[in-house]
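PT: before anyone asks, these are the final sequences, not the draft ones from last week. 689 residues across everything. Please model them as a single complex and drop the result in this thread when it's through.
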Amino acid sequence: MSVRSASYVPQAATWGLGGIGIAAAAPLLGMGEWAGWIGGGGVVVAGAVGVLGHRGQQRQELHLSLEEGLAPLIGGRSTVVTRGWKGWPGTPTRVIIRYDAVAKDGDPNWKAAVVDATQRRLDVSATITKHDRRGRRVVLTTRDVTKENPVEQRVSRTIGDLLGSGARVTSFKSGADGDVASFEVRHIPTTKVASSGGYRAKVERTFGHVHQGRWRCKWDLEHDKVLFELRPPFPEVVELPRAQVDTKRDVLASYDKVSIDFGVDEDGNKLSWRPAVDPNLMVVGAPGTGKTVLEHNILASVAQWGWPIWVVDGKAIEFLGWRTWPNVQTVASTVETQVAVISRAHEVMEHRYQLIVAGRASEDDFEPLMLFIDEWSDFRANLTDWYTTVKAKGMPTKAPVLQKVASIARKGRSSRVHLLFATQRPDAEYFGGDMRDNFRCRISMGRLSPQGAMMMYQDPNIGTTVPRGRRGRATTIDENNRPVETQTYFVPDPRKANRRGDQSQLDILEGLMPDEMMRRHGRLIIVPPSDDDIDKAGSDYTAWCSADWVPAEARPDLDPVTNTAVDAQRAREMASPMAMFGIPSTTARPASDTVDIDDLDDVLNTTHGADDGYGLNVDADPLGLSIGDLVELEPGYWVTVDEETEEDPLDPSLVLLCWRDDEDNTGATGITLGERVTSRRALIEEGAL
Ligand SMILES: Nc1ncnc2c1ncn2[C@@H]1O[C@H](COP(=O)(O)OP(=O)(O)OP(=O)(O)O)[C@@H](O)[C@H]1O
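LR: through. Structure below.
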């Protein structure tokens, strides 16, 4: 706009009065019939001149205000031109500035300040579209935000408060409900954002607090922008889908394609284990976090690919329901059979290795074998107890089968003997040396301790804030090597579903059965060695290692599956502590008072209070808190520290505490500097590095 003086009043008056005067004089000039038209025309023109003049004056004031606002930034010898005015009185759509040589246009904040001044003075959203430093010329394009819908205006205001008035909100997108679901913010204060993770978390959480919702930010610091989007809610339960098996292809032909989906991330993307790429899978999880369910879902998927499955059930009861599942050949629930299974798997591996070495076969000739070792620590403890009782003179101090597991983990890839290794806690024993590299695919169920996180992911923070109230929630490393939280798939346990007669769960299981043509491996029975065999072998241990395996049909007398019908009432009586002391139970409790034996696991697994892996309450300085510490935000309401605490970038009198609670709510709370909080720190675990 070129600046015009506000002379519209006399001009309008001249037109109006002139028109009326001429109209009055018209009859005298013999133009009486035109008097009305002349008078009316004069008034109309006067009105138009007045109204347009008034608008021009308002625009001029706005322009001058802009010049004033920009003056300290662009210097005295500068010009500001406003073009393309729209609206009433309107705003210019373009602002062209030729600035003085004294302007600090090299300062990284200069452009943001120019944008800021333009936005504030014109009440628009502005962005620099051209900047010619040599010609000292800046062109800004503006948008009238006062015409935007109220929600978008409110979003823009919050962003202004959080990221500075130079930040510009663009590209609003609505969700299915018509509400804002995402938007982009450009010209963010990158240096400030980059220097503080707490600041980033605070922006995300405060925005979520003000605008009600779980928002997440995708920062693009290279381009000074950030995308805000509504975080999709994590589903509480996701059923395991059927594996995408090409049943026309032979197991050997499909080997490279085998992909075992185990869960979804918050965007619903599947997370998978590819045995051909990462031969072994490590699962770590405290009781009740969903480790067993995850293993069941891996088992149900692997079975659909037609692979034979051998299970070492360290806890003896977790896989009982899968004994009759197609392709599950053996579920070993005693330490003797467990030793037999691991020894055989090791033998298969060694045999295949020898074939390769002798040039008689190659990796491509081997049918994959899936070995599950569940509850490693329980198995190892039972094994150690048993081994000391059966160890003969001259045998190694430690059961050699322990070494065999390490060897399978190391060499399984070429022999296609794949291992799923599950344990309650990461342990220095199998995370030391090269063992970690043998388990590149790792899943930690539930929350890890900082030491556990260090062992699993070489980072004390990854997986340490997983909400405790969400079962099946886990952390893993995705194919891009980034830590990602996942909700693992839910699979019912056939044993529990059968016992409860839960038809919907039985239907789910039915839907996961391998196709008829993929049911390729029958059940096997491990025949206990006779006294003779033991004598010949030199010890029980050695005899079990080389025990015979026969098809289940050959030895119905040894088949544990043939005699499993359980009378629920009888089972309850047998399980009562009184029965264990030999005292008959006299008082029958009403059924509603009783806890189903299978639910007992869940009850016992729910961790409460002091025995939950955290130390005692301590009075702490918020600045000394670490990620993963618990903090009592309100009496009885504990949250987990989710980012390093630091001075609040928006208010130096506060310490910024970003947190996550057990139900997966997140927030940011400012704690007055000097104030103390009640906190609990994760205990250091036995065996930690
Ligand atoms: N992916 C999941 N989705 C929904 N609920 C789950 C999921 N995984 C587990 N749960 C719930 O948590 C309970 C405990 O799971 P699970 O038995 O797998 O725990 P665990 O870690 O193996 O415990 P334990 O080591 O004592 O066996 C299940 O009975 C189920 O109710």
